[in-house]
Each structure stands twice: as structure tokens, then as C-alpha cells.
């Protein structure tokens, strides 16, 4: 067997092993059911409105990403203006 074929076969086997491991790991995480129930002494949780859900999942992360991008770009913008 030639060296490139051996290397390709080894890489394929490694990828298959990693893929099988991830499949087993994720199947245990996603397909297992939780057997716990809400304790009797706890209050019932009110449902979350769509707007609150949207703000937490979309608006806040995008806002934080934009703020971090702005803070990253500001030093180079300030340096460019100071040379003129």
C-alpha cells in the first residue's frame, strides 16, 4: 500500500472514530429524558413573552457583538485621524 493511501485511510478511520464518539456523546445529551419534576413548594413560573425571549436570544447578543466590534475598531480609527 502506498504512503498516501495509508495516510488517507488512517485519517478516514480517525474521523470516523471522532464522529462516532460525538454521536454517542450528543445522543446521550439530547435524547435522554429528565426525570425530575418541579418541587411542590415552588411557585408556578409565568410564561415568558415573545418580546422578552427575542430580546434575550437575538437583540442582546447582537448588541454586545456590535459593541465589541466598535471597541475593537476605535483605536485604529483614532490612530488614522491623528496622523492627518
Explain this structure.
It is a single chain. The protein has 84 residues and is mainly alpha-helical. It folds into two domains: 1-31; 50-84. 73% of the residues lie in helices and 0% in strands. It is built from two helices and no strands. It has helices at residues 3-30, 50-82. The termini are far apart.
Brief sketch in words of this structure:
By secondary structure, the protein is an all-alpha fold. 73% of the residues lie in helices and 0% in strands.
End-to-end distance: 65 Å
- List segments where confidence is low: pLDDT < 50 over at least 5 consecutive residues: none
Count of helical stretches: 2
- Main β-sheet: number of strands, strand sense, barrel status? none
What is the string of SSEs from the N terminus onward? HH
Helix/strand class:
mainly alpha
Please report the total strand number as a whole number: 0
Radius of gyration: 26 Å
Overall tally of domains? 2
Global geometry: flat
> What is the residue-averaged pLDDT?
83
Amino acid at each position: 500500500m502506498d504512503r498516501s493511501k495509508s495516510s488517507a485511510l488512517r485519517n478516514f478511520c480517525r474521523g470516523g472514530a471522532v464522529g462516532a464518539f460525538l454521536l454517542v456523546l450528543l445522543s446521550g445529551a439530547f435524547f435522554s429524558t429528565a426525570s425530575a419534576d418541579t418541587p411542590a413548594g415552588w411557585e408556578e413560573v409565568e410564561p415568558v413573552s415573545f418580546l422578552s425571549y427575542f430580546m434575550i436570544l437575538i437583540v442582546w447578543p447582537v448588541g454586545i457583538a456590535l459593541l465589541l466590534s466598535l471597541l475593537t475598531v476605535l483605536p485604529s480609527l483614532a490612530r488614522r485621524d491623528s496622523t492627518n
